[in-house]
Amino acid sequence: MDFSFFLSNPLINVGLVSWLAAQGIKTILDAVKHRSFNKQRLAGAGGMPSSHSAVCCSVVLTSYFLYGFQSPVFALAFIVALIVMYDATGVRWAAGLHAKAINQIVEYLDSGDVNDQEKDLNDLIPKLNESLGHRVIEVICGALLGVAIAVIGQLLRQGGAHLI
């Protein structure tokens, strides 16, 4: 069976390459910062650079290269990218702050004299992921990574390669 059709869509290819690159960079930066490898960073949300922004921006620019500014594909990709990047710095960032506050409450309940009702609450609430959203600089760096990968993909396509 021929599986070459999996590589036949440049928008999917550039998005996938952007995601892999951003997650790889994020994992390396985290390992350097904490001096240990954390395999959860390979697919985890939050951190530098934003893989969501990298994916969206690479797809936006590639759709522009392939279909032009007036195309519905470009328009849809552009609007979705704006929503995703706004959400990453707004809603998801706030959700991460809420998770941090809840984790501190749970830690407080676990640390001292608590009654049975509070102990039950502590047992019910798992440690929440605090790294959900992004700082603006993380979104900008992700967007720039996506743009760079889209430009590389365009240069490769112009040179005859059709993988990205």
Which features characterize this protein?
single chain; 164 residues
The biggest beta sheet is recorded as: none
Shape: elongated
Query: Structural class per helix/strand content?
Result: mainly alpha
Oligomer: single chain
Overview of this structure, please?
This protein is an all-alpha fold. Helices cover about 70% and strands about 0% of the residues. The protein has 6 helices and no strands. The mean pLDDT is about 85.
Q: Topology of this protein?
A:
Blueprint: H1 10-34, H2 51-67, H3 72-89, H4 91-111, H5 116-124, H6 136-158
What's the gist of this structure?
With 164 residues, the chain is mostly helical. The chain has six helices and no strands.
